[in-house]
UniProtKB/TrEMBL annotation:
Residues 12-128 form the Cyclic nucleotide-binding domain. The keyword Phosphoprotein applies. The keyword Repeat does not apply. It comes from the Bacteria. This is histidine kinase. SUPFAM superfamilies: ATPase domain of HSP90 chaperone/DNA topoisomerase II/histidine kinase, cAMP-binding domain-like, Homodimeric domain of signal transducing histidine kinase. InterPro entries: cNMP-bd_dom, cNMP-bd_dom_sf, HATPase_C_sf, HATPase_dom, His_kinase_dom, HisK_dim/P_dom, HisK_dim/P_sf, RmlC-like_jellyroll. Residues 291-464 form the Histidine kinase domain. It catalyses: ATP + protein L-histidine = ADP + protein N-phospho-L-histidine. Its EC number is 2.7.13.3. SMART domains: HATPase_c. PANTHER family: HISTIDINE KINASE, SENSOR HISTIDINE KINASE. Pfam families: HATPase_c.
Length: 464
């Protein structure tokens, strides 16, 4: 039998009079359940205020992972004035448990006759909401961090691999330089001819124009190969082709080769062109290493901007466009994996908003990530834009051409734990947290969806 001693073990009941606890014992029912018993399935009504006297009960996520654990003494289920009607997630016993269950029909009588007991339970509801919200937000942030970490690894992999690959190639090319130097030493060039060769080469290196199309480059390589063969620059046809590829890479033409031939003579042509080729290869490797390094620096800058390192934790003037672009950079691997075309429509002088930048980046991450998941493998488009209204509100829209959200569930998508993703692929917390963050900024979020077009609109006050 449940006794006052059992109920006094609950800290919230410390100041509740004995007669009110006895009322609870008289109107509730004691129950026992074995381990691994499902007290409530997802979607089932919750009809009881449940006091856990002995044992452990766990709320389980859609993927089967534990979300919250309750150890005796603990208060679960419906509480006075609570709007809870059904279980969003399964409630399962970890061990044999003993509970005291009060049906929701008795709550009205309790609120009229047991003031202190009601107050204690209402306080418990407030604490539950606060603690659960903090934990849910933390877990969603960790999930977002995991997605961004994977994205950053993907993004860094290509430039890092390029640097390693080109550094090895550069090392091999530098080892071949002495052989080319010996060939140059045997040439009979005047100082004026040497200066001409240097100016001719470095003019091309310093004024490299836009890259050729594949067809244009192939045609140029064929022309250069024919020219080199006519002049018998090198005996090996493979070397001729390699030399033509290098010269075409830097837009050397037959006219350029005629020019240098006239200046240095045919007897010096092979040695000069092989030396030029060596320099062109080194130049390309160095440029590629530089481009990869710039890409890595841009990624580091994006992650620093996203996390707002070296900044305080308060509100500050936030450029919404910069936060969105940083988020797109970190999710770039997912966009490329599905060949999603992204269009940005930001006004040239978009105002800043007073906001918590880290929280806003959480919003952009969830909205963009959800759009990516909703888009098809091919032909997906994502359009993001902002505009100012009445000089006070910044509206930012995220529009994708996915299958859309059925009208019947549009009103539920911001509910905690509601998700349209398959089991294990979503917690259902993303949009709930998005809405909470935007409300924290005194803003609003709406959704309009039909097949082929879904738009989330975020409204933020400029000076919240």
């Amino acid at each position: 039998m449940v006794t006052l001693t059992d109920l006094r073990a609950f800290p919230p009941f410390e100041h509740v009079p004995d007669d009110q606890l006895n009322w609870l014992i008289d109107h509730a029912e004691e129950a026992t359940y074995p381990a691994n018993h499902t007290l409530n399935k997802a979607g089932e009504p919750i009809n009881y205020l449940r006091l856990l006297l002995d044992g452990t009960i766990t709320i389980v996520e859609a993927g089967g992972e534990p979300l919250l654990e309750y150890r005796a003494p603990a208060i679960l289920g419906v509480l006075p004035y609570s709007r809870m009607t059904e279980a969003n997630l399964p409630l399962i016993t970890d061990t044999p448990v003993r509970t005291l269950d009060l049906h929701r029909d008795r709550l009205r009588d309790m609120t009229t006759s047991c003031y202190e007991l009601t107050a204690a339970l209402v306080q418990q509801m407030t604490d539950r909401v606060r603690n659960f919200t903090q934990q849910a937000q933390q877990e969603e942030k960790m999930a977002s961090l995991g997605r961004l970490s994977a994205g950053l690894a993907h993004e860094l992999n290509n430039p890092v691999s390029a640097i390693v690959r080109n550094a090895d190639a550069l090392k091999q090319q530098m080892r071949a330089t002495p052989e080319h130097f010996k060939a140059i030493m045997h040439l009979n060039l005047t100082d004026e001819q040497t200066d001409t060769v240097n100016e001719w080469l470095f003019d091309k290196l310093d004024h490299k124009t836009a890259p050729l199309s594949l067809l244009e480059r192939s045609s140029l390589e064929d022309d250069l190969t024919d020219w080199l063969d006519d002049q018998k620059v090198v005996a090996d046809g493979a070397e001729t082709a390699d030399l033509a590829v290098s010269l075409a890479e830097f837009r050397f033409s037959e006219a350029d080769l005629d020019f240098i031939l006239d200046r240095i003579g045919k007897q010096n042509l092979a040695g000069v062109l092989l030396w030029v080729n060596n320099n062109l290869i080194i130049e390309k490797l160095v440029v590629d290493i530089g481009e990869a390094s710039k890409r890595m620096a841009a990624l580091v800058s994006s992650i620093k901007s996203y996390t707002h390192m070296d900044r305080g934790g308060g509100k500050e003037a936030v450029h919404v466009g910069e936060g969105i672009q940083s988020t797109l950079t970190l999710l770039g691997h997912k966009l490329r994996a599905k060949n999603i075309a992204v269009t940005l429509n930001f006004p040239p002088e978009m105002p800043t908003v007073q906001a918590w930048p880290g929280e806003l980046n959480q919003v952009w991450t969830n909205l963009i990530d959800n759009a990516i998941d909703a888009l098809p493998e091919k032909g997906g488009t994502l359009t993001i834009g902002s505009h100012l209204e009445r000089g006070q509100f910044l509206y930012t829209t995220f529009t994708d051409n996915g299958s859309g959200i059925p009208e019947a569930i549009q009103r539920k998508i911001f509910d905690p734990f509601f998700t349209t993703k398959s089991v294990g692929k979503g917690t259902g917390l993303g949009l709930d947290i998005v809405q909470g963050v935007i409300r924290h900024h005194n803003g609003s979020i709406t959704v309009h969806s039909k097949p082929g077009e879904t738009t989330f609109t975020v409204c933020l006050p400029i000076n919240a």
